[in-house]
Task: structure prediction
Amino acid sequence: MVTDPIADYLTRIRNAVKANHRIVEIPASNLKKGITKILFEKGYILNYKFEDELKPAMIKIALKYHPVTKVAAINEITRISKPGLRQYCGADKLPRVLNGLGIAIISTSQGLITDKEARERKVGGEIICYVS
Result:
């Protein structure tokens, strides 16, 4: 049994990047699907596929690497809000990751969004993770 499924999700991606894997499979949930969509929209992963017909449902993620240098698009992915210590932030104090070069994924009342979108909408929430 996994105590923190989001930390497990991020760790699987981190380990796959370090091992230069092309595809990683992760058990699915709605929150993980939302994080995956944001990573795809922001260009950190190449593609993804939700396999809901399988039991348990899985997410297949194709990791993105530079074609010549083979450097991964995801340099660092860090869990911020943990089950033992939740991290919330107001709209006026949202964090900047690498001075705007990275993203923070935030769970708000309007769903999962990036820190930039949260600033535009003037909403705060729980800081899920940083990606750079």
In short: The beta strands are 23-27, 45-51, 58-63, 77-79, 88-89, 103-108, 111-114, 125-131. The mean pLDDT is 95. The longest helix spans residues 5-18.
